[in-house]
Here is the input.
Amino acid sequence: MMKKRLPVILFTDEKYFSVDQVCNSPSDRYITKLRVQDVPDKVRTVNQTKHPSQLLMFGRKMPPVFLEKGFRMGAKGYLDRVLKPHILPWIQQNFQDQSELIFMQDGAPCHTSKLVQEWLSENLNFWPKEVWPPSSPDLNPLDFSIWAYVQAKACKVQHPNLDALQLSVSKVWNDMTEVFIRSTCSTFRPRIEAVIKAAEGGYIDQQES
Here is the structure.
């Protein structure tokens, strides 16, 4: 199947962004008994607030959808706040022939609920819950590349509030080039083949603990 020419795949995913400065990797740690003021200057320190304010972002490149602080994505909320007002109108505006597009979503409970699956069956050409693996960060370009790219650039510094964070994330998203997006998505099929063959259905990228 993957050797044949595919329709356009619209990859989707959700991502929380925090006002705190990003700390990229668990390997970027400096363990010491020294007091903070005695740590060498060459060691970069990142201040983390106890409960940082966050934005939920639901992300040709579709504009990001931001959901307010405290929003919890259930099946009805996903349908009424994301699919109906944002996803469907954008697809209808950009694709005259919807058979040219496959809508993809991961196995989150709100995505695989009967309510959402039935609505998608009636309105979009999509991969049902039986097609997409329930846990698949190695296969979604947003998971294995784009979110990290946006976060690294948008959260270089701590933001004073959610408005500043949203502006920063939006700018990085809007400035992301088509070349970068195409290059990232071009690894989709090789990654599927790697998961099937090399990893026997398991992870192919090292996962953070």
Remarks:
- The chain has a mean pLDDT of 79.
- Residues 8-24+49-197 form a domain with the Nucleotidyltransferase; domain 5 fold (CATH 3.30.420.10).
- The beta strands are 8-10, 14-18, 54-58, 65-67, 101-103.
- The first strand starts at residue 8 and ends at 10.
